[in-house]
């Protein structure tokens, strides 16, 4: 087990193994997202209250899931990097951050679009949207902090610490925002706390969520691979790969 | 003089000396203590001018305004928490002392709270009068600010420690720290609002206390780790 | 007492440039080790690594034959580091500055010792002025007073001669030699040429890091 982890931590080995894994995740992501959106947009029944506008859930919820999961993965990767000094973990964390911010933005944007037919306005201080907005700021903080250091090692460690501090705070923020929301707008209709969905509605949602996760893994593998080449450009095995040395 | 003497004074001596030193330093640069207070009063002055002098309207938004303004005032002074120590080399000496760094960092944060958070909390009722804050909430306002600003100092110190090595860390510091301040703001302003409505405030204050306990147990380690990173350059 | 600081296969990269590589060091009691090299050759970085401040390097450090990671506390209790910045608070008097250092080092609060240390670096009469009113050289002397105040066998000094007048330089140099003779150990970078003594050893850092010659 230990040897395996350390092997995984070696950039060269990771580069090789990820090359084999990557296509599978791309295919899975494409199939799942295609099936999920077709089912969700065309075949799932319309909502009895919201009509067809509820179908935006098939983008909003997977994006929101991913936005939170990516932050957690980033913190876990940061922890692995800080404790075991495995550089791959840091490269992955660095590559995840913009994707996480993008997913948070997608969740916010789809929520806003959803708000137009539901609330009649583009923005409502809904508990989930507010939490998402704060999460977006947390992502900005991590990305900005990483960019601010001139030394890469310091940047990596600072971003790791901030991601870990952030991940401890996310549940607290979420809980307090929920509490704040119920205090101030107890009567408002909430899109997220609703009676149980019928299976024809949530099955495509589940497929979409899985598809988004596969997409995230595939993209992170791809971006980490190019980051490996960038950071290890002076190493022998990379130059060999590029055909510079035999 | 001997070549080597085993350090005999424990961490307690070093912590007390650090507390004393930082207190003396801040008392000699009184403007640094006063600036956040003036800022606080100034921001509160802006709101009636920008919104409306109507006492009824002001009374509604007063708890939130007072809390947000106090939070920003506390944030303003954070950047200098480790900055001068970093610039004159005392910070590397602090890191190289054979004493537990989290405890020493905690001492510095305690001084920051004592001379920023606490005065802000004591001053807030005065500004509350100007915003026609309803009677009966003044004690809760001061209490919630005193309790909450301790958490703010602790969380903010992590951000200050992460950005102390950066030449333009000030704005970045706000970006890092403000999202983390939100729970404290919610329960702090919530406590004042509950007091106005006549609801029990003990739940709010208990949660503020819980947040502080958590910040106290975790933040010193994060501050120490961040300082070690910053000294790396 | 024994005293041994070792580095094995030390390498440090900054901005895609190797400051040094494959650097092996053995520093013993009774030695003055002068780290030499042109500007930007990594002298300060090496001192920071050897004093346990930097984590961003390759290789292994040993303190008294144990890996530094495990003996860090003991190492720090033996170390006196003086950096580029003197670490003197301008708003505090020299006495107050030293009082903090004394407490930080775990020494008991001893005002007589502080007066004596300041006298040894020629600051009699300046003890109660804010350090900000002293000249740069005098502030540096306040920092150097720590050498007199806090008994530590391993001194790591980064450009300690900066801003010090000629008499001060001679005093400090003889202080270093005396420290080495008593079984202490000095690691120093300086542009000032140290007089040859049997204790003196040089480490040269060059460009690209094929270095570490005697």
TrEMBL record, chain A:
Annotated ranges, domain Cytochrome c assembly protein: 13-184
Keyword field: Cell inner membrane, Cell membrane, Cytochrome c-type biogenesis, Membrane, Transmembrane, Transmembrane helix, Transport
Short name of any one Pfam family annotated for the protein: Cytochrom_C_asm
GO cellular component: plasma membrane
Membrane disposition: Multi-pass membrane protein
Coiled coil: none
Localization in the cell: Cell inner membrane; Membrane
Single Gene Ontology BP annotation: cytochrome complex assembly
Record-annotated membrane-spanning stretches: 21-44, 56-84, 96-117, 129-149, 161-181, 201-221
Entry GO MF terms: heme binding; heme transmembrane transporter activity
Family: Belongs to the CcmC/CycZ/HelC family.
Record function comment: Required for the export of heme to the periplasm for the biogenesis of c-type cytochromes.
Protein name as catalogued: Heme exporter protein C
Organism from which the protein derives: Halomonas lysinitropha
Gene name of the record: ccmC
TrEMBL record, chain B:
Key words, A-Z: Cell inner membrane, Cell membrane, Cytochrome c-type biogenesis, Membrane, Transmembrane, Transmembrane helix, Transport
GO biological process: cytochrome c biosynthetic process; cytochrome complex assembly
Cellular location(s): Cell inner membrane
Annotated TM spans: 33-51, 57-82, 103-126, 138-164, 171-197, 203-227
Gene Ontology CC terms: plasma membrane
Family matches, as InterPro entries: Cyt_c_biogenesis_CcmB, Cyt_c_CcmB_bac
Protein name listed in UniProt: Heme exporter protein B
Taxonomy of the source species: Bacteria, Pseudomonadati, Pseudomonadota, Gammaproteobacteria, Oceanospirillales
From TrEMBL, chain C:
One Pfam family matching this protein: ABC_tran
Gene3D superfamilies documented for this protein: P-loop containing nucleotide triphosphate hydrolases (3.40.50.300)
Domain ABC transporter residues, every copy: 5-212
Residue span(s) of domain MOSC: 110-214
Source taxon at top rank: Bacteria
GO molecular function terms noted in the UniProt entry: ATP binding; ATP hydrolysis activity; molybdenum ion binding; pyridoxal phosphate binding; transmembrane transporter activity
UniProt keyword annotation of Amino-acid biosynthesis present: no
Record keywords: ATP-binding, Cytochrome c-type biogenesis, Hydrolase, Membrane, Nucleotide-binding, Translocase, Transport
GO biological process, one term: cytochrome complex assembly
EC number: 3.6.3.41
SMART domains cross-referenced by the UniProt entry: AAA
Enzyme class, UniProt record, top EC level: hydrolase
Keyword Hydrolase: yes
Protein name as it appears in the record: Cytochrome c biogenesis ATP-binding export protein CcmA
Organism: Halomonas lysinitropha
Gene name, Swiss-Prot/TrEMBL: ccmA
């Amino acid at each position: 087990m230990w040897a395996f982890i350390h092997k995984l931590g070696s950039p060269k080995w990771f580069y090789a193994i990820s090359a084999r894994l990557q296509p599978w995740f791309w295919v899975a992501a494409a199939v799942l997202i295609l099936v999920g959106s077709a089912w969700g947009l065309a075949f799932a029944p319309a909502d009895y209250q919201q009509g067809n506008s509820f179908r935006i859930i098939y983008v909003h919820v997977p994006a929101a899931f991913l936005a939170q999961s990516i932050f957690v993965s980033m913190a876990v990767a940061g922890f692995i990097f800080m404790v075991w000094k495995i550089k791959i973990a840091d490269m992955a964390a660095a590559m995840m951050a913009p994707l996480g911010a993008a997913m948070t933005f997608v969740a916010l944007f789809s929520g806003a679009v959803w708000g137009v037919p539901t609330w009649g306005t583009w923005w409502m201080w809904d508990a989930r949207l507010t939490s998402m907005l704060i999460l977006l700021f947390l992502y900005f903080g991590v990305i900005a902090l990483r960019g601010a250091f001139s030394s890469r090692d310091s940047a990596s460690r600072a971003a790791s610490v901030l991601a870990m501090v952030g991940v401890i705070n996310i549940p607290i923020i979420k809980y307090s925002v929920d509490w704040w929301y119920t205090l101030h707008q107890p009567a408002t209709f909430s899109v997220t706390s609703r009676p149980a969905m019928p299976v024809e509605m949530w099955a495509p949602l589940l497929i979409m969520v899985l598809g988004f996760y596969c997409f995230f893994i595939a993209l992170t593998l791809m971006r980490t691979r190019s980051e490996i080449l960038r950071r290890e450009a002076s190493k022998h095995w990379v130059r060999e790969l590029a055909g510079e040395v035999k | 003089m001997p070549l080597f003497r085993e350090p005999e004074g424990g961490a307690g001596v070093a912590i007390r000396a650090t507390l004393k030193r930082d207190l003396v330093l801040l008392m000699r640069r009184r403007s640094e203590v006063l600036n956040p207070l003036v800022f606080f009063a100034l921001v509160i002055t802006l709101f009636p001018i920008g919104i409306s002098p109507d006492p009824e309207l002001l009374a509604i938004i007063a708890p939130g305004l007072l809390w947000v303004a106090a939070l920003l005032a506390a944030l303003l002074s954070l950047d200098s928490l480790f900055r001068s120590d970093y610039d004159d080399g005392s910070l590397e000496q602090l890191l190289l002392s054979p004493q537990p760094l989290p405890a020493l960092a905690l001492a510095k944060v305690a001084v920051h709270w004592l001379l920023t958070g606490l005065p802000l909390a004591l001053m807030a009722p005065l500004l509350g009068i100007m915003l026609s804050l309803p009677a009966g909430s003044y004690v809760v306002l001061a209490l919630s600010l005193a309790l909450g600003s301790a958490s703010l100092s602790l969380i903010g110190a992590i951000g200050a420690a992460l950005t102390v090595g950066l030449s333009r860390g000030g704005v970045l510091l706000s970006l890092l720290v403000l999202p983390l301040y939100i729970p404290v703001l919610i329960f702090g302003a919530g406590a004042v609002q509950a007091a106005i409505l006549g609801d029990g405030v003990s739940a709010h204050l208990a949660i503020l206390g819980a947040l502080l306990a958590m910040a106290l147990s975790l933040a010193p380690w994060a501050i120490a780790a961040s300082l070690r990173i910053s000294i790396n350059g | 007492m024994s005293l041994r600081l070792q580095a094995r296969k030390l390498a440090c990269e900054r901005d895609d440039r190797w400051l040094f590589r494959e650097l092996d060091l053995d520093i013993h009691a009774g030695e003055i080790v002068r780290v030499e090299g042109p500007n930007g050759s990594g002298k300060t970085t090496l001192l920071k690594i050897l004093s346990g401040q930097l984590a961003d390097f390759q290789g292994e450090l040993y303190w008294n034959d144990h890996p530094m990671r495990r003996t860090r506390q003991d190492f720090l209790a033996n170390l006196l580091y003086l950096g580029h910045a003197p670490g003197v608070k301008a708003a505090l008097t020299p006495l107050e500055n030293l009082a903090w250092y004394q407490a930080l080092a775990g020494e008991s609060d001893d005002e007589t010792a502080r007066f004596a240390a300041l006298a040894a670096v020629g600051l009699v009469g300046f003890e109660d002025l804010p350090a900000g009113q002293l000249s740069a050289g005098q502030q540096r002397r306040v920092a150097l007073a720590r050498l007199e105040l806090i008994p530590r066998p391993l001194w790591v000094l980064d450009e300690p001669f900066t801003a010090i007048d000629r008499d001060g330089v001679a005093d400090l140099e003889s202080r270093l030699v005396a420290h080495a003779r008593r079984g202490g150990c000095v690691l120093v970078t300086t542009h000032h040429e140290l007089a040859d003594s049997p204790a003196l050893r040089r480490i040269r850092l060059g460009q690209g890091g094929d270095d570490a010659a005697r």
